[in-house]
Amino acid sequence: MAGAQSDVELFGHVIDGEEITAGDGPGFDSVDPYTGRPWARFPLGSGAEADLAVDAARRAFDSGPWPRMSRSERRAILHRLADLVLENRRDLALADTRDMGKPVSQSLNKDVPRTAENLRFFADHAALTPAELYPSDTGHHAYTRYEPAGVVVAIAPWNFPLMLASWKIAPALAWGNTVVLKPAEDSPASVTILARLALEAGMPPGVLNVVHGYGPDSVGSALTGHARVDRVTFTGESATGTAVARAAATHLTPVSLELGGKGANVVFADADIDQAVEWSARAAFTNAGQVCLAGSRLYVHRSIAEEFTRRLCGAADLLVPGDPKDPATLLGPLSSGEHHRKVSGYLDSVAEWGGTVATGAAGPGLFVRPTVVTGLPKEAPHRNEEVFGPLVTVTPFDTEDEVVAEVNDSPYGLNAMLFTEDLSRAHRVAASLRVGTVWVNCFFVRDLRAPFGGVGRSGLGREGGTYSREFFTEPKAVVVRVGEDPGADGAA
Fold first, then answer.
1. 244 and 283 belong to one structural domain
2. Which residue from 36, 119, 174, 321 has the least number of CB within 10 angstroms?
């Protein structure tokens, strides 16, 4: 890591292969949400740094070796980067834990390995995925080439800083693009380490750049509205996604937006209750509920609602808040004081809306204990807005048609879960839900070949497998005359 000053570690922008620390210039601190003390300092970027990073990425794309390497050559470097990620897993995991309070058991055992997996998968996918060949009767040979799109701006969220950044940059890099990555200002450390490791792995300067700063009227808006950028991929809240799309539209820059969610979780009467309780607790309380996919809207068939709620409360009470750097801790603090005030506000208004807190409460410091709320009316904000904390609402239902209509009556459509032992119902309900992903009798199981994204206010576009290829490349049709032309021009 970079040097330390008064026990505060210094990190920099990574632009064109060089790391530029704050020095005596403007900077900002990352505050450990558990201790309440700054642990790292970063340079505060502006439009000037955004220009420098885009210029570096532009040069690296237009005249550098990266887009001109064979896919096998890029694949080897990305696999080397994945190796280095695992070799440096503790530094990477602790960076996310100290930035935003994620339990180190999660960042070390899940997020870092998944980051390496993302790098390996997309490196292999780009090297091994075939393109289309179109048979022709006109004496021509037609096929598709997938050329890299150019300079990609990637904006990563604060809740899974390393893993979700890798989800964006891995396919972009594998297909030959160059990248300017702006991490969330609340959690910028791990991706800076990743950029250092990329250079160590042999990635040429300018291919992966990291710029620190804020969003509106700062680095974020300068990047998303930049004239020399070819793609923008963003994960974050829906309102910010709207601003990103508006900025990119100035130059008709294609965007991929993975935005907010209000995940529904439906438990039918025939569900395996043990399994449903376990998965529902994970879906609601993992990462202190700071997950866009969180199953925060829980619908339980009325015949089992009382028992299910009691058992869910028992599972919630087992999650004891603690130091996120302790490997035994499963529940860390919320990411910041501002976010803690937001989530606590929802807890404070439960009674006002006629609901009951079955278990849970705001705790000491920035902790919020896993909270289960019952009895809220349909119009309560707790049931409709993205709380982004460890709060789940439980609502009983009577019929399949009723609960499907309830789930679909939301501006969000990122994901849903359903628990049932009836195979026909599982397929029928999954087909009826207006969401991007449906998990049946499980949660957060990802196949990296499958499409990922949402509908409505949950996003625009899909990523994963060939869906990422479509976004990060410019498909090109090539038609070659190879024989005698019988006279048809093939025009549509």
1. no
2. 36
Domain of 375, CATH number, reads 3.40.309.10
pTM: 0.94
- CB-based contact 145:478 (threshold 8 Å): yes
Q: How many CA atoms within 13 Å lie on the side-chain side of 456?
A: 16
Examine residue 490 and state whether it is found in any structural domain, yes or no: no
Look up the CATH number of the domain holding residue 15.
3.40.605.10
What's the Cα-to-Cα distance from 66 to each of 130, 181, 227, 231, 356, rounded to whole Å? 21, 17, 22, 17, 57
Catalytic site includes residue 484? no
Which DSSP string do the residues of 336-402 spell out, in sequence order? -HHHHHHHHHHHHTTGGGT-EEEE--B-STT-B--EEEE---TT-HHHHS---SSEEEEEEE--HHH
Query: Does the active-site annotation cover 442?
Result: no
In a domain, 485, yes or no: no
> Average pLDDT over the chain, rounded to whole?
95
Does residue 283 share a domain with residue 253? no
Catalytic residue among 9, 49, 185, 258: 258
Q: What pLDDT, on the 0 to 100 scale, is given for residue 136? A: 86
Q: What was the pLDDT predicted at 348?
A: 96
Rounded Cα distance, 381 and 352, in Å: 11
pLDDT at 437 over 80: yes
How confident is the model over 152-179, as a mean pLDDT?
98
d(CA 467, CA 157): 21
Candidate list 292, 313, 386, 463, residue with the active-site label: 292
Strand ranges, E, within 8-122: 8-10, 12-15, 18-21, 27-31, 38-43
